[in-house]
Amino acid sequence: MTQNTTTNIIHDRNARGRTRMGWLDSQHTFSFGSFYDPARMGFRSLRVINDDRVVPGAGFPMHSHRDMEIFTYVLEGALEHQDSLGNGAIISPGEAQIMSAGTGITHSEFNPSKTEPVHFLQIWILPDTQRLQPRYEQKAFPLEQRRGNLRLIAAKDGRDGAVTIHQDVDLYTSVLEKGDVLHYHLKPNRYAWLQVAQGIISLNNQELRAGDGVQMYGGELEISTDIGAEILLFDLA
């Protein structure tokens, strides 16, 4: 009999921490800020997955980071980035933006719209090397590359047009429509994290909804949807 088992632990969306203020509604998959759960301190090199919604014309003022790979993925609306390296950019849905904080970087993130909120995921990954030179990278991945397909958007070697990340991580995204089915083989001694960004999926016959996350080890993954969804899949050392 063929062994094809995957060990899954579901992190329920309703167990996330939450920060709510006038301009921000942020839900925390892992311990962050005032939210502390010893069972949610990250997974492998993943340290933060924040599901953020910012009202029009507001955002995070200049603040500093160091020794962290900070990845931003916009789901709806647009996010304006400014940093101490002199970078200024608008991040839109379908774009991958990464910032290596390294020895230290200061940045701000604002919703430039006067009418539309912005919804985005901010992800922190621990780098494999400390005290790196700070850097910024941003690339667009058209919908046709992501629809019904796992598109690599971040990787240690930056292959296939992905942004480069200083960690042994392959990050894929996919926009799924009704009836789509994806298969992914997780190699021995590799781990995975699946984040449901939008919609509803079935992972190996287990229903998951937007905000749910799943940590996995080994085996085959089958991802499908009856209504549509958007996902991020991390293949981790």
UniProtKB/TrEMBL annotation:
Residues 152-236 form the Quercetin 2,3-dioxygenase C-terminal cupin domain. Its cofactor is Fe cation. GO terms for molecular function: dioxygenase activity; metal ion binding. Coiled coil: none annotated. Fe cation binds at residues 63, 65, 107, 109. Binds 1 Fe cation per subunit. The keyword Zinc does not apply. Residues 16-125 form the Pirin N-terminal domain. InterPro entries: Pirin, Pirin_N_dom, Quercetinase_C, RmlC-like_jellyroll, RmlC_Cupin_sf. It comes from the Bacteria. Gene3D superfamilies: Jelly Rolls. Keywords: Dioxygenase, Iron, Metal-binding, Oxidoreductase. Belongs to the pirin family. This is Quercetin 2,3-dioxygenase. It comes from Gloeocapsopsis dulcis AAB1 = 1H9. The lineage of its organism: Bacteria, Bacillati, Cyanobacteriota, Cyanophyceae, Oscillatoriophycideae.
